[in-house]
Amino acid sequence: MIFRQLKKADSAMARLGRLYTRHGPVETPVFMPVGTQASVKSVTPGELYELGAGIILGNTYHLYLRPGHRLIEAMGGLHKFMNWHLPILTDSGGFQVYSLSQSRKIQEEGVLFRSHVDGSMHMLTPELAIEIQEALGADVMMCLDTCIPFPADRQQIIDSTNLTTRWARRCLDARTRGDLLLFAIVQGGMERELRCSHTEQLLGMGFDGYALGGLSVGEPKELLFEMIACSRPMIPPGFPVYVMGVGLPEDLVECVDLGVDMFDCVIPTRNARNGMLFTSFGHIVIKNARFAQDQGPVDPECSCYTCRNYSRAYLRHLFMAKELLSYRLNTIHNLYYYLNLMAEMRTALAMDRFREFKRDFYSKRQ
Amino acid sequence: MIFRQLKKADSAMARLGRLYTRHGPVETPVFMPVGTQASVKSVTPGELYELGAGIILGNTYHLYLRPGHRLIEAMGGLHKFMNWHLPILTDSGGFQVYSLSQSRKIQEEGVLFRSHVDGSMHMLTPELAIEIQEALGADVMMCLDTCIPFPADRQQIIDSTNLTTRWARRCLDARTRGDLLLFAIVQGGMERELRCSHTEQLLGMGFDGYALGGLSVGEPKELLFEMIACSRPMIPPGFPVYVMGVGLPEDLVECVDLGVDMFDCVIPTRNARNGMLFTSFGHIVIKNARFAQDQGPVDPECSCYTCRNYSRAYLRHLFMAKELLSYRLNTIHNLYYYLNLMAEMRTALAMDRFREFKRDFYSKRQ
């Protein structure tokens, strides 16, 4: 068994579930902190565990370029290399090739790109994406997909989506390890009909789980939710559903309501390093002068290490002084907020109180 | 009682002691990690405590400029502000005015300087140095002294040293809190006779402890030890002796042998961030390519968190990728090395085995 739906909300798609991996089960809905270069920036695996992270994400593109997947494999795999012994999901590298490499060219064979680290040329193919992820030993691997910009014309969406399907097939064929799960990525741009047909095609090919990709690329929020709402119900209850790169706390709540099980996003960690802290009543910008002599914690309702031990005044000082501890204490707070939010949603689902949870969540922010 | 000499080595000045402060006792000889801006860079107070730090140092110059001593006082003092509840020693700000400010002018009244943070002009007087340190609530305060470059001519040394004496008197007079210890700083350049007469003068004025200052300013190692060897024996056993800004592990061993009780230095923390790691057999530079696939710990004899959990290969990767965790894991290792070295010296002194300790220390490094 790969995924078990434990409980479904009466009035919505929201559900409680469990994803089974070779590094143990993951309770869903789940948020995966992003550990781009074999490290969730500024925090240790022990801290992640204490924060309640049940699975983290690694970036294939970065690890392929530095230190290299063969090196990590020789070191015993990504888990051992970075000292994290719960599940890891890796992306395919595709999205970061599109967004980070200095130049890239999509061909039938794969994506030709120039490394942002040393300028060298590489070809990322579906086969290489699987080879890298198998070498890393990812519990969940992702198929290489194409990234469709927003807006895009219909023909471009059709062509890209079809290429994604052919690449998904090649990923299935390239896979040599059955103990590592493989998820396909639904594309289809912002066209309902193309999303639906792509979902159907991929379902027919038999993957372990399905991601809804090509979202959070600049489209209005309504379109994001509409795209999820159209493909999500097509996926049978026995498969995990993952929305990539989403998002803000309210996006997670809405997506869970639409039946999404898995999330990843750099927002909590990146924004922490920029001094933006999430709280139960909205967010605060810690460098704001009004916090200079504020003895209170970031969020009086939060029981994270940062809120239990440090004042807003101290956190503001660390941020202004560019102290390394600033990034870490802020990251701990934001990850705690996100992971605790997911835990609260799981509890609400278990207790058949998701509606009440959602009402309370929004009422605090007003 | 301020300081108790618990045990003295038979054949040397080396001794075991205890410094009493309002935040509890400190076992000596002791190394004080440097927490410049109310943070020992990259680590939490909890980590410092677990590493065995018994006292840390704060920098008056930095805290005065940002966030300001009055702000820290309003927040309940430096201990509460930074969440560190063991003793803190603060420097006088003098040394950093000399080394960091964009321009400075020494006058009888004090030092006029331009802030490196915002370019504003300030006058640091002996009275202000005490006012700042009392506002911070430092367990041990330092007198404002002058900094004599190396080399310097005899008249310059005499003039500077005499000014340091007059400033020390003004510090004593400015002090309003008897619960905060106040140490004077011996100057005298690299002239034995001037060092001796200055030590005598300061001893006559009645401080709680004595620092040997103006050392580690570029002089040959022999001169450093010679200057310590000439003033140190003049200081009665009931006073703690502190050598400022020293140094490498072997310097600490030699200085302990000469009877020094207290040390501070940025070397373990700064060098950690530059990838230089101390080990029982010398130091290593972690970015060296030969560590790329090295599965062993930094130091097989070390039991710090970093060595227990991460390989040299991973630490090299983090360093090359400029990951924030690199600075932290390296800092933890280096501080552990320094603090453990001091603990080993204290144990050796307690067991009358300091000679043997020193022999073993050097034999491992060959």
List the helices and strands and how they pair.
Two copies of one chain form a homodimer.
Chain A lengths: L2 E6 L6 E7 L2 E5 L1 E3 L1 E2 L9 H7 L4 E3 L1 H6 L3 H6 L3 H5 L5 E3 L3 H7 L3 E3 L4 E4 L6 E4 L1 H11 L3 E3 L11 H21 L6 E6 L5 H14 L3 E4 L8 H11 L9 E3 L5 H9 L4 E3 L2 H7 L2 E4 L2 E4 L19 H5 L2 H9 L3 H27 L3 H11 L2
Parallel strand pairs in A: 4-15, 5-6, 6-7, 11-12, 12-13, 13-14, 14-15
Antiparallel strand pairs in A: 1-2, 2-3, 8-9, 9-10, 16-17
Helix pairs in contact in A: 6-7, 7-8, 8-9, 10-14, 11-14, 13-14, 14-15
Describe this structure as you would to a colleague:
The structure is a homodimer of 366-residue chains. The first copy, chain A, has helices spanning 45-51, 60-65, 69-74, 78-82, 94-100, 126-136, 154-174, 192-205, 221-231, 249-257, 267-273, 305-309, 312-320, 324-350, 354-364; strands at 3-8, 15-21, 24-28, 30-32, 34-35, 56-58, 88-90, 104-106, 111-114, 121-124, 140-142, 181-186, 209-212, 241-243, 262-264, 276-279, 282-285. The first copy, chain A, is α/β, with parallel strands linked by helices and 366 residues long. Chain A folds into two domains: 3-265, Alpha-Beta Barrel (TIM Barrel); 267-366, no CATH class. In chain A, the strands form five sheets. Chain A has a six-stranded parallel sheet. In chain A, strand 8 (104-106) and strand 9 (111-114) form a beta hairpin. Chains A and B meet through helix 13 and helix 14 of A and helix 13 and helix 14 of B.
